[in-house]
Amino acid sequence: MKCPDGIHVTAQGQVLVCGRYSRTVLQLDGEGRKKLATLASICDGLNRPQSVFYNRSSASIIVGQQQYVLISFRFGFQYANSLVVKVKENCFTRFSANTLEHVLST
Fold it and tell me: What would the CATH number be for the domain defined by 4-99?
C-alpha cells in the first residue's frame, strides 16, 4: 500500500484503510497486520482515496477522494452499483461519518 491515509474501524473490529497512491481500499484484521480483502481499487473508479466509512445498515463503504468526489460501494457477494456524487468544493474533508451519510441520501 502506498501512502496509507483514511482509516475506519468497523463494529466487528476490522480495519478499513485507504491507499492514496496505490488507489485501493483494503480490509485488514483487527490488529491491522493481515490483509483480508481489497474492497475497491482503481478498476472500481478510485482516484486517490483519502477517507473511508463503513455503513453497517446499507452494507456499503463510502470513500472520499481527491477532487471532492465521494463513491459508495455496496457489498454482497460481489461489488454492485457504485455511485459517484459530486459535492461542494473543499467540504468533504470536514464531513463526519453522519454528514457523509446525509449527503449520499439527499
Answer: 2.40.10.500
Task: Tell whether pTM > 0.85.
Answer: no
Backbone angles phi, psi at 20, to 5 degrees: -60, -50
Q: Consecutive sets of 10 residues in the chain, 106 residues long: mean pLDDT of each?
A: 84 87 88 85 85 83 78 56 42 44 56
Ramachandran bin of 90, using left for φ above 0, alpha for ψ from -120 to 50, beta for the remaining angles: left
The dihedral built from the CA positions of residue 5, 44, 34 and 95, taken in this order, carries a sign that is: positive
Q: Which residues 6+ apart lie within 8 Å of 96 measured at CB? A: none
Predicted local confidence at residue 106, as pLDDT: 52
- Sorted by where each begins, the domain ranges of the chain are 4-99
Q: What's the distance, CA 8 to chain centroid?
A: 9
CA pair distance 77, 74, nearest whole angstrom? 10
